[in-house]
Amino acid sequence: MGLRDLVYDVYERRLTRRLHGVPVPRHVGVILDGNRRWAKSVGASTKAGHQAGADKIVDLLAWCDEAGVEVVTLWLLSTDNLARSQAEVGALLRIIEGVVVDLARPENRWTLNIVGALDLLPAETARTLKEAVEGTAGRPGVHVNIAVGYGGRREIADAVRSLLQLHAAEGRSIEEVAELLDVEHIAEHLYTRGQPDPDLIIRTSGEQRLGGFLLWQSARSEFYFCEAYWPDFRRVDFLRALRDFGARQRRFGA
Known about the structure:
- The protein has a single domain (24-247), classed as Undecaprenyl pyrophosphate synthetase (3-Layer(aba) Sandwich).
- It has a six-stranded parallel β-sheet with strand order 3-4-2-1-5-6, sandwiched between helices.
- By secondary structure, it is an alpha/beta fold.
- It has helices at residues 3-18, 35-41, 46-67, 86-103, 123-133, 152-169, 174-180, 183-187, 235-247, and strands at residues 27-31, 71-78, 111-115, 143-150, 200-203, 222-225.
């Protein structure tokens, strides 16, 4: 072990000790940003960057298991990403299919859930993702939402559409629905219905914006922006995010 690795190891252990007794977020959302810029910085292809980012996910989920996080939402592909070149999107979808199939293997601990507008994806991709996650229900580890073809505005629109369709099927008029409509009713139709809202949202690559991620659910979230590109995200970066979260005095509604 080199001197740099030794210093890093000592620092990581110190961070871990300092987190004992510190509040842990129940739900962590992660915007996995910077794969393409990481690839450019190391002289690799865009596809290699996306694959390096996919390979990092297992590490993150293991760290979340260790920390006691209950729910993780990973934003792998936005609705805007679908407008990129057909070659890049096709390669990225193959990588996403592969990582979901790997995470769903019986030896892994995680319950998987696909969130997003699957009707925007190729039929074969949507089928592969849905079939992969079917057998993961009830596993003891972190519950993992995999956001693919996801956009926050699209989610809210889908939730309102679903709510209206439900009430129309029950014979209610639009006036009756308007009387019943409230925040809780809409929340019951979100992709993440029944789950706690994210306490902490992490975005890598230095960008400091949500970009449409969990717009409804993040109203009371804490945010942590990390300079590292996603493939370079380390356990120490995750521990720093937890430390930062634990040190904050959360003021809901203010």
